Amino acid sequence: MMKTVKFILLAAAPMFLMFACVSPKKLRSAEAKYSQLDSSYLHLQAELRECQGNLKNKNLQTADFSKEKAAYDKQIADMQKQINFLRENSNIALDRMKDLSVITETQAESIKRSLDNLGIKDLYINDLKRSMAFKDSLNNLLVNNLKSALSDINDQDINIKVEKDVVYVDISDKLLFNSGSYDVTKKAKVVLGKVAKVLDAHPDLEFLVEGNTDSKPFRNGLLLDNWDLSTKRAAAVTRILQNTYHLDPKHITVAGRGEYSPVASNDTAEGRAANRRTRIIILPQLDQFFKLLEKKK
Fold it and tell me: Are 237 and 209 in contact (CB under 8 A)?
């Protein structure tokens, strides 16, 4: 038994010596570093959850707008059919009454009111069409102005398009950042300045700055993964738009999509390069558009 105890003590002696060699100062430093990293991790997770929530709300708004637009299109078509039907029947009735010469004053007044109502409906439909045409014209104007402002940039590095009444501006990350970094380059600030100039001309527009990566796993320092990298890059672009070019932050939403919204296959180098992008999404002005429709009713 004594031999066993001596053996255990002899085996444990190096371990006691090793812990004895660690100074309290180093231990406190390590604990402080751990606490800092843990705090940074929690902060980044909170930012990520907030961005995901904002993005979900914007996506829901866009989907609701598409449904509302389809419903109004159907309503316009139905009302136009009713107007054509009523006009045709009113004209027939008037012709018959003229032939019979039996239109009373009350009947004539009723017909007049019906025709007046048809005129009101015509005005509403025309105003509705003008409102929708104005929205489409605004999107086309934005696209043309953005393409003109960025005409000197390589077409492969900038992609501007309209899909489902939403304007998208995709900027390749090689124009904005060095590899694995979320610090905006000096060259990128020139590109963002041109975009900001167009957006500043329409101060009521709201837009989403969305970071995207390829599918290759990423971890570097405090950045845990592609979620962190995409969110940090979107936030970095937003700070330039706000602090350098003075766009109103109340109209900006920041989001990171990581690798989960690709525009090309991640199986090729070209596809991965296309997926590494920062996307500026100019959102439809839903509130203003629906208020305009309500005024016309």
Answer: yes
Length of the chain: 297
Q: What pTM does this model have?
A: 0.59
Q: Return the C-alpha torsion angle 270, 271, 277, 283, nearest 10.
A: 130
End-to-end CA distance of the chain: give it in Å, rounded. Answer: 98
Beta carbons within 10 angstroms of residue 105's beta carbon: 7
Neighbours of 94 (CB within 10 A): 14
- Give the sheet arrangement for strand 158-163, strand by strand: 158-163, 166-172, 277-283, 206-212, 252-256
CA atoms within 13 A on the CB side of 293: 18
Looking at residue 212, its pLDDT comes to: 96
Instruction: Using the predicted structure, report yes or no on whether residue 241 has a pLDDT greater than 80.
Output: yes
Token pair in block for residue 244: 């350098």
Helices of type H across the chain: 2-21, 24-100, 105-149, 173-176, 186-200, 226-239, 269-275, 286-296
What would the two tokens of residue 249 be?
A: 């932050």
pLDDT band at 112 (very low <50, low <70, confident <90, very high): low
Express each pLDDT in 21-73 by its tens digit.
557 777 777 777 777 777 777 777 777 777 777 777 777 777 777 777 777 77
Spatial contact of 266 and 218, defined as CB atoms under 8 Å apart: no
CA atoms within 13 A on the CB side of 66: 10
Q: Identify the DSSP state of 76.
A: H
As a dihedral over the C-alpha atoms of residue 135, residue 141, residue 142, residue 148, rounded to 10 degrees, the angle is: 170
